[in-house]
Structures are given as C-alpha cells and as structure tokens.
Specification:
18 helices, about 0% strand, mainly alpha
Length: about 450
Amino acid sequence: MTDKGDFSQSSITGHIFRLAAPAFLAELVNVLYSLVDRMYIGHISETGTLALSAIGVVFPLISFITAFASLLGTGGGPLCAIERGKKNDQRAQAIMETAFALLIAVGLVLTASLLVFSRPLLLLMGANEQTIGYASGYFRIYLIGTVFVMISLGANPFIITQGRSTVAMGTVLIGAILNTVLDPLFIFTLGLGVKGAAIATVISQAASAAWATIALCSRSSSLRIRRLKIHKGITKPILQLGVTGFMFKVTNSLTQAVANVTLQLYSNGMDTLYIGAMSIINSIREISSLATSSVTSSAQTIASYNYGARCYSKDRATIRIATAANLACTLAVYAVVQIWPRPLISIFTSDEALIELTARCMRIFFAVFFMMSFQSVGQTAFIAHNCPKRAVFFSLLRKAMLVIPLTIILPRAGLGIDGVFWAEALSQLIGATATFSTMYFTVYRKLRKAKDGEALAV
C-alpha cells in the first residue's frame, strides 16, 4: 500500500518508519554534499582553518538558495498529498507541474542576480580580507548549479508524496556518492582547493537533478510531469503554504549572517577561529537534525493524506508517533554532544585550538536541543493541515523574533561572545514551547473531537 501512497491503510507506525528510513538516508546523503566539502576543506594543510571559515561565510547564502527550493517543494508537496487523499489526481498533477516549472524559473533568476552581487553579499555575511578570496571562489562556481539544486531539493517531496521514498533517496544518493569521490580528486589531486570542492558539488547536483526529473516524467510514476506549465490558480496556494519552509531557511540564513558579524565584533581579533567554530557547529547540527527531519517529512505526507481522506484517527496517531520518535532522537543527540563533542569536531579539523573552542561553544549551543522535537512536530502539523499563517508565524517567532535579537542583545548584556551561542539555546526553549502548545490546542484537539469521514477545517 505504501508504494501506491495510500496511507489510510495499515499501521501508521509502519508507514512512518517505512518512509522515514529511506528518507533518513536521503537526508544524510543530501547533507553530505556540504559536509564532505567542509570535511576535506578543513583538512587542507596550512590554510584549512581559514578556508573552513570562508565556507562558514558562504553558508547563509547557500541556505538562502535552498529556501526557494523549500518554498516550492514543501508548499506543493502537502497540497499534492491532500489532493491525492481526495482521489483528485488531475489537480495533484497540476500542482506538481506548476511547482516544477517554478523551480526552474526561480533557479535561473537566482543564478543571474547572485552572480552580479556575490562579492558585496559575502562581505555582508561576515567575510573579511583573509576569507573573501576563498568564499568568492567557492560561491561563484556553486551558483552555476543553482537550477540543479532547485530541482534536486524541490522535486523530491513530490516523489515521496507518491510513496516512492526509495526513488527519492536515489535523487541525493547518486549526487552524494559523486561528490564524495570527486571532492578529493578536485581539491587535492588537481590542486584546485576550495574551487575544486565547488566544481565537484555542481557536477553532483546535476546528476541528482537528472535523476529526479526522470523519476517524475517516467511512465512508472503514478503522477507524471507531462509539460512545463504554470497552471492557473495553483501558484498562490503553493507559495502560501511553502512560505513557512522558505521563511525558516531565510531567517536561518539571516541568523547566521548576524552571528558571523557579532562574532567579529566580540572575538578580539579571533573572528576567523570563532566563525570556523560556528561552521563546524552548524555542520554537526545538520547531522543531528537528520533523524527528526526524516520522521517529520514522512509524518507530514501521511498526516496530509489522512486529513484529505478524513481519516482523523490516523491523522492524530501520526502526530503522536512523530512526537515520541523525535523526542527519542533529540535526547540521544543531546547526550552525545554534551559528553563526547571532540570526536565529532575532529571530523572537520585537526586544529587543536579550534577543537577546544568549538567543544565549549557547542555545549552551549546544544544546551536544550531536545526541545527541537516539539518545534519540528508543531511546524509539521501546521503545514500538513494547510495552516500557512500559523506555520509562518511560528517559523518567524523562533528565528527572526528570538534568535536574531538575542544574538545582538545577549553579548551586550554581560555574556560576551558566549551570548551568540546562548541565543540559539534560549530561542529553542521558548519557540518550541510556544509552537507545540499552540499546535495542540488549535489542531490536535480539533482532530481528537472529529469523527472519521466528517468535514473538518483546522
């Protein structure tokens, strides 16, 4: 049944973990695109720490690009799933075709505009005279593959919506394997350094995009892309729902930029070291979030389907199981990061000073990481049930309304440079509590009172 995408039948736990397992591998492989770059770059002799800091400067702009893929993928995916739950495959296909056409169009616009303004943007993100050369060299090459990034990330939700999670895993698996093989070739063997890492990434993303396109155009797909067309009346709903994922990534990009600038102001000339530490911490956070993101992405698809099919008991079960699974994952990560940080950090650098600094800062950054399980489930429930206003608000709450102001205020309030890292922890505590409690009272309780088969709007 999972292969056909009918999530109203059989065990919800089984559906979640059947989708989550390959989704986890897909997420892992996807994260490896950037992580493998940082792993190799951080170990370049003599200039590794400097080059790693440069990648930390580029990171907010890469997040900005992926935000647009999230806008169209997480906006169109749940809508497509809801229509499939209603057995309205014609509209589901129109949603998918519209999103795919927009992915290509937006990717081309981003490529042109960011190439023109790349240097001033990198300086704004925290680059200095030491890092601007490395950062610019990497980013300008990376931009060549923007359309590939858009397709490989934005098309996958539509593959998962059809229950084809193993095919979705192939989208990123192909590219990540290529990236892992090509990185050392271009960086070390050919001596291209940071630019070599960018070239490897572009080639790998192109392969991933080709796989996703073939999968969605194939006759074996239950929903096929038959033409590139922006269907009337579909773009607005996609953007309204997808703006949550978009704002999350955009505010994450802005948060990193603010953090980099604040680290420069309070590091007493050690900004390169601190930005390098933040780059490693963000890399470890990406790895740490894989399990929860794969569970919530599969739960989102299943909840959307059952909401559309009016199977509210299955819908509620999806939320409960996702919450328990995410909490278990985040508690495990919290324990590992607090007790054994050095082995994780050593993956990215052999610089002892950087390892010591990162270990101290990372314990602060991850102080209440387990609360993110409630944040992710709350956000996912809002998106799955087509509640874009609430989803957008709580996405903005944690990043724009909490992290950014706290990053600016806490260092000035006596915490010094440690305040940059405490800002993340405090925002997780407040934001997750507000998001989950609101989701419970506005979505979950309505689902609990509703009977299967009756009309309901949350």
